Amino acid sequence: MSDKRKVHKKILAILDNISERFADIAKVNRKEAQHVDHQSIINELEKSETDLEDFENHIEEFEKVIQQSESGNQELSDEEEQVKLLNVARTAMWLSQEYCELVEDLGKEAAKNGDKQEAQLSLRYFKDLNEVLESAIGLCEMIEEEVFEENSQAVEDNLKGAEGGISQLRGQKESLIEEWREISQLMISNGLVDSKEELSERPPKDR
Asked: Stretch 28-54: mean pLDDT, rounded?
């Protein structure tokens, strides 16, 4: 298997994992939407559904291009592949941000109402979102690896800039961990658990 094909296989495995986590969270969000009266939250749920469709479309497009490239039907330049990967990573970040806000609302409401099961569920989804962002960072790092022979200046700028790069993904990851800690502390303060050791999913330490 060529180096490029190995990378493609690794990338597709990461995308499948991200997609599964988003689908799981979306399923719960749809269930929660049936009990929501606030229009702002309903709007957020609808937007997250649209962005999830965009994310799935980006993955499908990337998969088709890889299949065509590996079958010899279409030659894909490194720059084209990098751009498509950036689109996937960006969409994962935006969707993670939207889900993070929704999961935070779910966790806070559950903690205030003494619903331990729902609060623990929100912590689990924070873990999923944290891993999604780590995967998105991994995708961007792959774009910088030597397997892509040469990065164009436009791609380099995108990787380093505020619009789509690793720095913004890492910033989003830090914000998520802070919100994760806030929900965890609420659960402890409201007596849902006695200590951090009893939390089903504990916030990761800053690296």
From this structure: 71
Give pTM, 2 decimals: 0.72
Q: What is the CATH number of domain 3-193?
A: 1.20.120
How many Å apart are CA 48 and CA 42, to the nearest integer? Answer: 10
Is residue 139 a contact partner of residue 179, using CB atoms and an 8 Å limit?
A: no
Given a contact cutoff of 8 angstroms between Cβ atoms, the answer to whether 99 and 30 are in contact is: no
What does the DSSP 8-state code read for residue 196? G
- Kindly report, residue by residue over 144-163, the tens digit of the pLDDT: 664 455 556 665 665 554 44
90-119 confidence digits (pLDDT tens)? 777 777 777 777 788 878 888 888 888 888
99, two tokens: 């889900």
How distant is the alpha carbon of residue 94 from its chain centre?
8
- Shortest CA distance to 182 belongs to which of 112, 95, 99? 112
DSSP 80-127: HHHHHHHHHHHHHHHHHHHHHHHHHHHHHHHHHTT-HHHHHHHHHHHH
